Amino acid sequence: MRGIGKSFPGVRALDGVTLNLFAGEVLALVGENGAGKSTLMKILAGAQPADSGEILIDGKPAQIDSPRAAELLGIGMIYQEFNLVPELNAIDNIVLGSEPGRGPFINERQARERATNVFAELGIELPLNVPVARLSVAQQQMIEIAKVLSRHARIIVMDEPSAALTDREVDRLFAIIKTLQARGAGIIYISHRLEELPRIAGRITVLRDGAAIETRTIDAFPPDEIIRAMVGRRLESHFPELPVLRADAPVMLSVQNLFHVPMVNGVSFEVRSGEIVGLAGLVGAGRTEIVRAIAGADIPDRGEVSVRGKPLRVHGPRDAIAAGIAFITEDRKAQGLVLGMSVRENVTLAHLRQFQNRELLIDRDKEEEATDRYIEELRIRTPSPEQLVHNLSGGNQQKVVLAKWLVGVANVFLFDEPTRGIDIGAKAEIYNLMVNLAQNGAAIVMVSSELPEVLGMSHRILVVRGGRIVRELSRADATPDAVIAAATGAAA
Amino acid sequence: MEQAQIHADLTTQAKEDKAKQARAYWMRVGGAIALLIVIALLVNVAAKGAFLEPGNIIRVLRQITYGCILAVGETFVIITAGIDLSVGSLISLSGVVMAMFANSMHFGGFPLILATLIVGLALGAGAGYINALPVVKLNLPPFITTLAMMLMAEGLSFKLSHGRPVPLESGDFQNTGIGFFLGPLFSTLHLPGLPIPIIWMIVIVVASSVLLMRTRFGRYVFALGGNEEAARLAGVNVATVKTMVYVISGMCAAVAGFLLMSLFSSGSPQTGTGDEMLEAIAAVVVGGTSLMGGRGTIVGTFFGALLIGMLYNVMNLLSIESYTQKIVLGAVILLAVVIDELRKRYLRRA
């Protein structure tokens, strides 16, 4: 892959990335969340078109304009989320889309043969006749591998293949990868687990901010240098100054021994009035699940959440809202907004009671007044309060979500990835707003995968791994290396 | 300076946008009305003037009454991205039960009418509640739960009535079914007045429209259909709102059952076992409500029911046989939704 570039509205996802993969090699691709790994691989797999650059296979330029084209070129993808049909068995899944047989009939014998051949080659044994949904994650993954292999894939991309596996299963996986390697396949192995890379990878490429920063052989790339390459040195000037936390600021939010198995495993922390606490960690570490449990989006198994010292009984989001907790979700399109509704209707949705008149009808003038106020205050770029939020940009949609919670009287704000997918200008505005909220005495918990954001916007950082808080860092002690080391479990 | 410029730009843009929205609205409403008028005039010519006669217009309105009331309830359900297949059978069941109840009472007059209506409404509400329970608690598809209710209600109405209509012993319901309102006003048109069932329909359409467009509950119905998870996280009591839409649908079916029972002076198990439910859904969809949820209006449903009613009426005036009528009706429904979709795409591009 040579000079690959890709932009999304407001974001430059890839900036001229060049990547070489040799036959019979395992190349590890590492980088922070949002560094561009997934986008790069989607381009290779034909799931997304590149804006610029070219892809050469065996030295020849290749046109990869669809997943089908990628498959014909011998490129096989194993995504984190498997692409198996859960109700079909292993054989049917492997031959799906390229069934052997004549006319409309499937030759079951040939299909079985093809599947068993691939499994034999890989040294895998698993039940062939049960729906794959009943198999373990590791077994499903093996079926995925067998599937791409049965299509003669010579370039195989694995996205975080070890993330959901036990240690023994990882051993199996590595054995299979060695087999693939011996057959001459080139493998791109994406992983967050730096400690496992020496066991499997030949070379490592670090991706950062959409660019390939450095490639070295594994022996010449010790973990601390990998981390440094991943984090880099960045401009951090666009963060506003955090308000000074008063020594006598009362505890606003207290979380004690919170469990929501398997993702939240005993979490305790406190946030004071005027404080911004950052929850750092890798994707899948349980950060989102922690705030969801606090907000009543999921009902925790046990543990206690109190606001201003008053314990809550949370049976759902309504109870949390009533206690003054606002939850700004990670995925605003799926969870934060009703896209087919107007700005006005979204802004007032969580607090409609405030906009009722005595006849229990909604007072539209009152709604419009409030909406206009927040459009101005948050500088939401919308032609009118009646615009459907569907038509707004990501940053403005996020501001609508914020406005929805500012209408109420919340004093605990849970932000989950508050600036994901929005442009720099809107980001700065959202940071300023968070600072304003803190100045006015709100307690803020911010989940973020962007390290500079966590470092720049938190009074205190809690690092989450495996659903637990594994490290607490004050603003002064928080360095990128310390956070990444705690998040990946690498010895610091 | 720059700020002022931006602000000015925004204001102009706001004005343009409002104008654009107004245009879109009038294109829609005006388009619908214009289309109806054109069709009406053409048909009137074809039917040699029989169509636009006041008596015939009243007849059309009267014929759509029951279907329209059914469709109004169905609109609430469909906006939440649900469906209610049981409404036809609930007409029959409520009619039979109300007739049996009225016959077993020893008083008459207005108290009897009121008590009977309340029994019917309670039955419809209860059936709607049962429809909603598995949907809300177990997340089962409403297609299945209401299909089951459709079968059970139909079977029960035949069982209770032994398959025969239950004649009303009291004549007190006559006025509700075939009575007239505002007689003197209509006498100049040589009409006996506005039939009572039409009054029911107008009241239900207006009240439902206010409920849907102007209240918290109505807003939640849209939010639920648009994005259930976002609504839940915004503190909307999803279970209650969902339950209520099926209860409303069941109660609308009971009102239709009440009016039909009054009309025929008997509660028949066969009243709602024809195409009633399918036509109600068709009216909702033709009226611009999205089966995917999140979008729709009661007024649109009224026009949808009106279009279907007009079509039947016209075809009868032109003495088109009933088999052909169904073919035409199906084609018109398809055409209506295709045109609506094309119009939306056009507006989106403009």
How would you portray this structure in words?
The complex is a heterodimer of chains A (492) and B (350). Chain A has helices at residues 37-44, 67-72, 90-95, 108-122, 137-150, 167-182, 197-200, 223-231, 287-295, 317-322, 332-336, 343-348, 364-377, 394-406, 424-439, 451-457, 480-488, and strands at 2-8, 11-17, 26-30, 52-57, 60-62, 75-78, 155-159, 186-190, 203-208, 211-217, 251-260, 264-272, 276-280, 302-307, 310-311, 325-328, 412-416, 443-447, 460-465, 468-474. With 492 residues, chain A is of the alpha/beta class. Chain A folds into two domains: 2-231, P-loop containing nucleotide triphosphate hydrolases (Rossmann fold); 251-488, Rossmann fold. In chain A, the strands form four sheets. Chain A has a six-stranded mixed sheet with strand order 6-7-8-3-9-10, with helices on both faces. A six-stranded mixed sheet of chain A has the order 16-17-18-13-19-20, with helices on both faces. In chain A, helix 4 packs across helix 5 (137-150) and helix 8 crosses helix 17 (480-488). The radius of gyration of chain A is 25 Å and the shape is globular. Chain B has one domain (47-349). Chain B has helices at residues 2-46, 54-79, 87-104, 109-138, 142-161, 174-178, 183-187, 196-214, 216-226, 228-233, 238-264, 276-286, 298-317, 322-349; strands at residues 166-167, 180-181, 194-195, 266-267. In chain B, the strands form two sheets. Chain B has a two-stranded antiparallel sheet. In chain B, helix 3 packs antiparallel against helix 4 (109-138), helix 3 (87-104) packs across helix 11 (238-264) and helix 4 packs antiparallel against helix 11 (238-264).
